[in-house]
Amino acid sequence: MKKFVQVENVGMRFDTKKGPFIALRDIDLTIEKGEFIALIGHSGCGKSTLLNLIAGLTTPTDGVLLCDGREIGGPGPERAVVFQNHSLLPWLTCFENVYLAVERVFGAKEGKPKLKLRTHEALALVGLTHAEQKYPHEISGGMKQRVGIARALSMQPKVLLMDEPFGALDALTRAKLQDELMKICFATKATVVMVTHDVDEAVLLSDRIVMMTNGPSATIGEILKVDLERPRSRLELANDPRYVDYRAAVLSFLYEKQAHDERVAA
Amino acid sequence: MSAITYDKAFEGAAKPVVTIEGTAAAARGGEGAATVPAAANDSAVPAAKVTGRGREWLRGFARATLPPLIGIAVMVGIWYLATLKAGGRLPGPVQTWNAAVVLFSDPFYSNGPNDQGIGWNVLSSLQRVGIGFGIAAAIGIPLGFMLGRFATLSAMVNPIISLLRPVSPLAWLPIGLLVFQKADPAATWTIFICSIWPMILNTAQGVTRVPSDYMNVARVLNLSEWKIFTKILFPAVLPYMLTGIRLSIGTAWLVIVAAEMLTGGVGIGFWVWDEWNNLKVEHIIIAIFVIGIVGLLLEQMLVAIARRFSYE
Ligand SMILES: Nc1ncnc2c1ncn2[C@@H]1O[C@H](COP(=O)(O)OP(=O)(O)O)[C@@H](O)[C@H]1O
Ligand SMILES: [Mg+2]
Prior knowledge:
The structure holds 2 protein chains of 2 kinds.
Chain A: E1 3-16, E2 19-32, E3 36-40, H1 47-55, E4 62-67, E5 70-71, E6 79-82, H2 94-106, H3 112-125, H4 141-154, E7 159-163, H5 171-188, E8 191-196, H6 199-205, E9 208-212, E10 220-225, H7 234-238, H8 241-257, H9 262-265
Parallel strand pairs in A: 3-8, 3-9, 6-7, 7-8
Antiparallel strand pairs in A: 1-2, 1-4, 4-5, 9-10
Chain B: H1 2-14, H2 18-32, H3 36-42, H4 47-85, H5 93-105, H6 118-149, H7 151-164, H8 173-180, H9 183-208, H10 212-221, H11 225-263, H12 268-277, H13 281-308
The complex binds adenosine-5'-diphosphate and magnesium ion.
């Protein structure tokens, strides 16, 4: 396996009104091609900050990030982001939201019919063909999140970055989308980094779980390799002793080693 | 922030027009009346159904129209009583009504530049507002976009705007007269001055308020500046822009009356002044109503446009 995303000695300091605030320090992480990484940690520890660094939306104050051997100098469509709050443009239909991305990535080489076909395919992949002409405010939260995923996938990114994509959804919708995401990733062999605070989601979806210590100046506490064969089924895994062990390991990290002051978490 | 204070500044001026808001509610009641045909069709069929739905509709209609109608009736009543005591110095409702009937029977006559129908006067005022406002929009909106996008420019221009914005537009009238040497463009010029501030400030504020999520989408997609403008900035700023336009039109309509009183010519403001000189006080009262109604219509038109472009 090949090193695909490299995070080397990265630190992030924010200059705030109250002086410098060190959010992240000494982050070292190597992600292989086709790997699914979950970033887990207590709220405010710096998961989004790390994801934004990989996305290139912010630049690190220390260290360097590489993608496919090249330094990450800014955001770009090869590292697609699924934002926490879907971030669909409310004045565009679902189709137009996805088309905007498709046109940007493939517009130089392909004609309109091909671009439209790609858009239809991306929306079909997340089961939203029937909602193509709807506006974001006309569809449910889960559907919006799926459009966000379709938009990201339609760009055929090298890396798919997701910031708590299912955080705001009810348990049933979340489970359904997790299953869909697993299928899509299995089929497309996508490299994924996903921020989550849901232990089950992390174990179910990922190849490795990156557990972060509490902030400020958070860093990687432990990395847990999840050796469960794919495709995975949530029903079968529920009683699998390995699954239970992985789950316990993450819980122990979060609630014993990094026991969190609840007042801060709130 | 500053755009809101601008709004506040004119709230005082807008307040006396209480009855007009009553009319707005009545107009909304009128919208509700669009559902009449359905109810009316039903009334042709079984009687039991009619009473249920018909009564419901009647109640809604009454709730929407009665309070404003009562409000207007009370106002007219007070006006009547007040003018009874004034001993004929102030015209009462009946007198005014009679004068209005005569006036509106021929709103578009023209006996030379100083004696024209009220329709012409209103139209010339609207034309001045339209031109002054149009030029202000053409300059203010792009300028607002630039101020919102470029912080340095904003830091340069903001002190100037803060300094000039509180100045009454009428203070600019002499400058206009001096530069243009004519009354008509000078009045338009004051409209331009008073319209441009809310347009610049609200547009700029809209640009700085574009959710960072949308800009992040643009950055991840690496959109071109043109795409960013057409697909993100413009639609996101549009509601703010429309607020600016609404405030501008509102103040422009306030200012034009005063400006025309000073400059003369054809226009509703001048007409008021002229009728004062002729001591036709009932015409002044009619003018007050006309100004109020036109202002209300402008406002409602822009509110309707704004509603059309809200995405929630
Ligand atoms: N732009 C910023 N300026 C200052 N502080 C920030 C900024 N972004 C994030 N932080 C701080 O960095 C820490 C980590 O934030 P974040 O990455 O959003 O946490 P989370 O793990 O919940 O996603 C928080 O304490 C937050 O207040
Ligand atoms: Mg976060």
